[in-house]
Amino acid sequence: MEITESGHDSERNSQLFAEAQDCFPGGVNSPVRSFSSVGGTPLFAAGGSGPLLRAADGHDYIDLCCSWGALPLGHADRRVQTALARQIPLGFSYGMPTEGENQLARRLQQVLSGVEQLRFVSSGTEACMSALRVARAFTGRDKILKFEGCYHGHADYLLAESGSGVGELGPGSGKSHTSHTSDGPHSRPGTSGIPPSLADLCLTRPYNDLAAAERLLEQDRNRIAAVIVEPVAANMGLVLPDEGFLAGLRRACDRNGSLLIFDEVITGLRQPGLSGPTDAATYFGIEPDLSCFGKAIGGGLPLAAYGGKREIMAQLVPSPGGHCYQAGTLSGNPLATAAGLATINALFEDWPAAYAQWQDFIAALEPLLRKYGATQANCGSLLSIYPEASHAPRNFAEAQTLAKRERQGPQPFSKLFHGMLQRDIYLSPSPYEALFLSTAHSADTLDFVLRQLDDYFRRS
Ligand SMILES: *Cc1c(COP(=O)(O)O)cnc(C)c1O
């Protein structure tokens, strides 16, 4: 990686990173935090307030990553602090049912599409893994179809990739990313440590290629338990579904008796609904059989959920007649559910004004980027900026073509990332990751971002 200077590569961050490299493999507890795809020393976080992130060296940045989407209200929101402060003296965990779980479930059922019953878990990985287990239990089938460039957590069989190409990890992301090189039925592990027999259970096809998915479902009829998809893909940059893609998957699943699972770990509570945020299922008007949620629903605490049709969720032990096991010591943790409920309620208060501001921001951003040969994609509070690109990618192959320039070539994203860091703006540190707007990003904050982007592109 050519770029090593971040402009704020302070001694304090470097000291902390040196220590972390002794404590943790690669110095981090999740790969994409390491800056390995943009170069330089990762910032260490020491605090945050609203749209601002404070680094360990005391420097403040406007945060457009917001904990990868877990902070839809920005940092340290007062209303969430109040809810947490109320719970703290009452205890941190019981391993017993609580009223707080019921309250959050009721609220989610109002806001999200088709969640007749749900289970709380502690991470998006668990939510996807568990939804797929229930789908297999319900259908009695083994195989899964996923789409290239979609991320559904790091369960073994979900880190599969298609074709016979040499496995290649997304730069620093720890996510499995390899181009589709074969139309054959075989998948391979996307990382070491996964038996090929597990990867074989997960078939992959290109995102937005409905015909390829339909062919596979016909061909492997009676064997595909579920099709899992990010309804708006947000782990290869932001890639919107083509008109008809999601509806086509719904029909193809119905024809072949496969379940349709929307992985809304990112999109949940980030799509515009009637009076507040909702999920992509509601926004696009497509009803999946099961959905997975995470990130935003815990407002920054470890909380995720999966749910959907009652008859499918009834497979879970100990429902009467249930025979599918899933559990969790900290599932529905009282601090996490308190934060989740406060986050949703606060989001509804903030949403109308915030959504209007984001739309104004996008309306100004689009022509600004065009002027400099860049482009963007956006949906709700999600955004990607594509420097030196004439159009946003439609699938993983196109996203990869853009991202490859970071390792071999002009490094347009890394340069943008560091250019913005020098201008006190923190973008998600990988070309594969989306940017996240929060309701704390005021019109003034977003104006500052626009001016800094203009300054960066004008000088570069
Ligand atoms: C982040 C993410 C996951 C995994 O969630 P974790 O909480 O990191 O385990 C799953 N699906 C999607 C779409 C995600 O973005």
Automatic annotation (TrEMBL):
Its EC number is 5.4.3.8. It is an enzyme of class 5 (isomerase). Keywords: Isomerase, Pyridoxal phosphate. GO terms for molecular function: glutamate-1-semialdehyde 2,1-aminomutase activity. It holds the Pfam family Aminotran_3. CDD domains: OAT_like (cd00610). InterPro entries: Aminotrans_3, PyrdxlP-dep_Trfase, PyrdxlP-dep_Trfase_major, PyrdxlP-dep_Trfase_small. Its cofactor is pyridoxal 5'-phosphate. Residues 168-195 are annotated as: Disordered. Belongs to the class-III pyridoxal-phosphate-dependent aminotransferase family. PANTHER family: GLUTAMATE-1-SEMIALDEHYDE 2,1-AMINOMUTASE, GLUTAMATE-1-SEMIALDEHYDE 2,1-AMINOMUTASE 1, CHLOROPLASTIC-RELATED. This is Glutamate-1-semialdehyde 2,1-aminomutase.
